[in-house]
Amino acid sequence: DSLDETTDYSPDNPVSVKIGVTGTDTPQWDFIADIAAEEGIEIEIVRFNDYVQPNQALADGEIDANAFQTISYFDHFIEEHDLDLTAIGSTVLAPMGLYSTKYDSVDDIPDGAEITIDKEATNQARNLMLLQEAGLLELEDDFGVTSGVDQIKNNPKNIKLTEIVAGNAPRLMEDVDAALINNGIAVDAGLVPPEDAIALESETATPYINIIAARSEDADNPVLQRIVDIYQSDEVKTFIEEEYAGATIPTYISLDELNSYPR
Amino acid sequence: MLEWLPEAIRPNITSELLLESLYETVYMVGWSLLFSGVIGILLGVTLVVTRPGHILENSFVFHTLNPIINVLRSVPFIILLVALIPFTRFLMGSAIGTTAAIVPLVFYAGPYIARLIENSLLEVEPGIIEAADAMGASKAQIIFRFILPEALSSLLLSLTTATIGLVGATAMAGAIGAGGIGDVAITYGYQRFDNGTMLITVLLLIVIVQGLQSLGNISSKRVRRR
Amino acid sequence: MLEWLPEAIRPNITSELLLESLYETVYMVGWSLLFSGVIGILLGVTLVVTRPGHILENSFVFHTLNPIINVLRSVPFIILLVALIPFTRFLMGSAIGTTAAIVPLVFYAGPYIARLIENSLLEVEPGIIEAADAMGASKAQIIFRFILPEALSSLLLSLTTATIGLVGATAMAGAIGAGGIGDVAITYGYQRFDNGTMLITVLLLIVIVQGLQSLGNISSKRVRRR
Amino acid sequence: MIEFKQVTKTFHSGNQTVTALDNVNLHVARGEIYGVIGFSGAGKSTLIRSANLLERPTSGEVLINGVNLATLKSRELQKAKRNIGMIFQHFNLLQSKTVFDNVATPLKLTRTPKADIRKRVTELLSFVGLSDKADNYPEQLSGGQKQRIGIARALATNPEVLLCDEATSALDPDTTSSILHLLKKINIEYNITILMITHEMSVIREICDKVAVMEKGRIIEEGSVLSIFSNPQHPTTEKFVRSIIPTGLPARVKEALQQKEPNRRIYEVTVTGDSSHSDLLRSLIQTFGIEVDILHATMNDIQGTSFGRIYFDLRAEPEILAEASNYLKSHPLQPKEVTGDARVAA
Amino acid sequence: MIEFKQVTKTFHSGNQTVTALDNVNLHVARGEIYGVIGFSGAGKSTLIRSANLLERPTSGEVLINGVNLATLKSRELQKAKRNIGMIFQHFNLLQSKTVFDNVATPLKLTRTPKADIRKRVTELLSFVGLSDKADNYPEQLSGGQKQRIGIARALATNPEVLLCDEATSALDPDTTSSILHLLKKINIEYNITILMITHEMSVIREICDKVAVMEKGRIIEEGSVLSIFSNPQHPTTEKFVRSIIPTGLPARVKEALQQKEPNRRIYEVTVTGDSSHSDLLRSLIQTFGIEVDILHATMNDIQGTSFGRIYFDLRAEPEILAEASNYLKSHPLQPKEVTGDARVAA
Ligand SMILES: Nc1ncnc2c1ncn2[C@@H]1O[C@H](COP(=O)(O)OP(=O)(O)OP(=O)(O)O)[C@@H](O)[C@H]1O
Ligand SMILES: Nc1ncnc2c1ncn2[C@@H]1O[C@H](COP(=O)(O)OP(=O)(O)OP(=O)(O)O)[C@@H](O)[C@H]1O
Ligand SMILES: [Mg+2]
Ligand SMILES: [Mg+2]
């Protein structure tokens, strides 16, 4: 399982690493893999279509690292499942926004309005927190990263929350009063987050910064460290900025900073 | 309602949510079964009777319908869901929610049922159709008074299989906010690691499927004459 | 390879990815069809021959198997996928990837095929089984030399329907990193709003499904004797 | 009424071609009961099935009431077919319907009022002796019972034309005879035209007016039942006629011949119509003083006249027998001496 | 060989109960050809189907070779069944297999070498006259052809016991007769035991040694074919016997009676076995001087002896006829005068 014995590598004696990603994060990983390959690190990308399996597979040793989740989701997951995993580097931040085809500001949202939220648990928690930030809801004090609609304390406007799959939000916007949409998806769908959103997650929302995770025993593995370095290089930063047109913001902060978000 | 369960398997969801999702599943399966059943039977019958050598042989209809059904059966459900959004909105007023889900479910199950029905109808003894023809039965009479009743037992099993398939598909209809037990199982049970919810929802699904299958088996057996 | 397409529908994915995913789909469908076909036929045959009044009447087997199949058919695919992880890992050495996906796909398609086969086999004329019995055929001979050949035409159509169902299910196997065209359609096309990818992948799926259905129809027709 | 004009039907299977009907011409007049007989595989079913277009002829045409059904529009064709009842060789009953509903089916197709249906079906079931099976399903019936349901169903709508493909093949003689009497009765009362396929000469004898003999897709002989029975031309026809009028030597005659007694001779007299044997008997007994016995005789009653053979056993001194043989040679009944070599048992 | 001991079989459908077999006892000895005849629905098929346990009797037992099949283990039962060939009323051919493969099926079950199968099947097909249909599928066959395939299949393994349910019902007389001859031949050559269901008395006459008559699930009469034909006890049996030995007055006799001529009388003589008519004829012609004609005669050849009736037409002055009538009354052949009132046509 461990990568321990493979600290030595060179283009002639390459080491191979399996990295789990989800859905659409492959472009930057393909780019990183090309760079790493020149140094003798052969990255095999394992694409998941789900937010549970990549951590499970990492803990089970089926992959060597994964990069798909926010730090808060990660912390919650390893606690819940008692897994010995560690975050080894920050990657990007894709802030969430509230969009509407009917209203220009949050204040216009009427009583009894219908708003779509993501049915996926961590994103849903983020959605609800953004609605709280926007003053539409009040959440329970112990609201956590996978808390859901049952943790709403107060819903003064009697807003109807409809859970849908994230990718459908832009497509279904016009059927509701407002929709919560991930930046990534919003940009892909042709929205311009700073202009179109009527409420946006703050860009420094530490809990929602994405990370690369590895098994704790491999935390210091030079190969993985090197991959983190490559990810955090300017070259990759530029690539991501161009590729995602601002939807996904490269956010490179120290591990300490990463782990110091309010829980 | 569920507080008496041991903690390890006590679901984190309210019994209201459970009941509501049960209702949503029944609602979606019921309506979409009704429509897709009618459409599926119509398509299935058409596929059978327009094929070469059959009573309404019509090469054009057969060779148009056959690939259309294949196309609908090719598209992954989630994509079908999306592709149909404008149509669903036009038909239902909104593309979101339990009622809206009926449209893609019908598009999903209709062609599927058509294929199952087609297979069942092809097993009807040609002698029966000859007898009908010789009696001067109209094409519609041949279909409704001869072919369908003779295939009824097999049709009921096919519809049972399709209904259970529909129950499975409703779990995916959660993507457009349709709800339902399958969706609760995935979003509350699976994604939130709530074993209690997983257990109870899956148990509910099992009960539903078991009930449907038994109903199908019994009614099919009752009308089976051989 | 795909550069010549007009921009609006030019996919954002490489043709390598497309080819690879095509291979993955074929690989998953092929293997899981093989296993689930064998298992499904076995289960389907067992469901038929152990039912009351049939040649291997066995109330215990029938009344055990029947609900087990229902249970497997009740569980949403994603939950089945998860529930099977330990078993998949034990069997395949790993619970992720294209090869690992075969296990849940077989669990998904096996019981489904069993139901379709059951329906096909129940349509075999009882007179044929009587003739076999009167000839002193063993139970295995009755099944393999009489029931299965007589139902072959319908069986082929059932297997076709199941295979197309499997193609659909592979799209969901993306959850454990299995890849495949359906997955590309969803993650690159659907999630990234890439119409080009959506179009080309769906077209590919249509071609596959159309091909499978034609193959099924033709071979079924060739062995149909009435 | 039913006219086959140069009808040919070929089936293809693999590289084989079967000519089931080979240039068949046949005319069934209104009100006639027309029998078609032939060996298994001769093309009888194909013939009757082409009468109502269940088989489309490869060439030639079939006219019913002067109309070529193949030229009719769908609705007209249905109407025409409702006037043609058909009894199938393999019954073709609906497995999913009760006996009652099977018989009621053709009536339901024409939207007959419920009460009328009940009355008619009850009447038919009682006629075919299956009133107690009204609520049973076909698979619970015996072979003959199924056939009777098929007959009842074909008669339900009082069709003008009835096509019967082996309508009584699964029935015992008693039931057969009552069915045949019914057919004859409706034939007379309603002037219904019946085309009747059978392999049993006794069925032909009992009710048919005319008969055609088929072999290998061709009609090899046809005519009134009387003429065919009394004077079959084709060897196949003769075989069928012989099936009810045996032409082989009876066992008792063969036995007698084997004894080869010099003062005993056996003569065969063919009886056609109203032939009288009184002078023959008187001459032999009184004039020649021969001891005359009737060894065997078989006659058939065909439409009021008798056809058949009598075997006379003559005993006397050889010289008397020789004398008598000259007399017999010139006798109008043309008795033939049977020696055992001339004929072979069938 | 085959023994039915108090076999009862009831079917339930809805609230109806049908007793298809009602306490049936029957013993078929080894090498016998045993015919069972009865009206449609009498229970014949149920009887034969319970011989090889296709129907499990509700009570009673069936022994084959002294063994109650119901007590056998699965494998032994299969072995026993391989020794019992069966021809089904509805053929039960495999639609998915060619004619050749249908006939080959029972041989394949016992893993007969390919070459042997080919030889045997070819032989059987040529015997039933269907060599040219070897590669056809059942649905391409005529009714009689299907039946012949069923026969060939049942004979394929040279079984010791053959159960035939209406084996020739769809066949023309010629084919029937050749099949029956074959059955008789294998019966003699291999000492095969045959239980034969039929509704045709002519089949019984042609090859059966013994016959049982069924009615409403019961065996109402049984015995040697000879005794049943010559001396039927039960009215149903008589009906069957009459189907080939008509007992009604022939048309010609009825016609003669209608003329009511005072100097003419008609006498009926029943022929049983080897009865001689020579002295009767001589007395009438020579002693009384009566003109004697044979009006009608039907005799059946049953296993070497003749059974039947002769109708004599006597013409003379009324006083001579009155005189003769006294003589006839005391004649051992017991001639009966036919007056037209005594008997009713069947
Ligand atoms: N499965 C069944 N359910 C109910 N009744 C049945 C069933 N099978 C047979 N019967 C009845 O049992 C009786 C005897 O049937 P069987 O088939 O033995 O008659 P059969 O003598 O062979 O007549 P046939 O000459 O017409 O073939 C019939 O009245 C029939 O309706
Ligand atoms: N669909 C078919 N394909 C090929 N050959 C066929 C088909 N139908 C009938 N035949 C052949 O045509 C010939 C005539 O068949 P048909 O059924 O008319 O005979 P039939 O006179 O009714 O015989 P039977 O008395 O045995 O019922 C047979 O040789 C048969 O094998
Ligand atoms: Mg025929
Ligand atoms: Mg029977």
UniProtKB/TrEMBL annotation, chains B, C:
Q: Which UniProt keywords apply?
A: Cell membrane, Membrane, Transmembrane, Transmembrane helix, Transport
SUPFAM superfamilies membership? MetI-like
What Gene3D superfamilies does the record point to?
Answer: MetI-like
Q: Where in the cell is it found?
A: Cell membrane
Which terms does the UniProt entry file under GO BP?
Answer: D-methionine transmembrane transport
Please name the Pfam families in this protein's record. Answer: BPD_transp_1
A GO CC term?
A: plasma membrane
List the membrane topology term(s).
Multi-pass membrane protein
ABC transmembrane type-1 domain ranges (all copies): 22-216
The superkingdom of the source organism is Bacteria
Mark the transmembrane ranges: 26-48, 60-84, 90-110, 155-178, 198-218
Q: Which family does it belong to?
A: Belongs to the binding-protein-dependent transport system permease family. CysTW subfamily.
Q: Which PANTHER family match?
A: ABC TRANSPORTER PERMEASE, TRANSPORTER, PERMEASE PROTEIN, PUTATIVE-RELATED
Official protein name in the record:
ABC transporter permease
Biological source species? Shouchella clausii (Alkalihalobacillus clausii)
- Source taxonomy: Bacteria, Bacillati, Bacillota, Bacilli, Bacillales
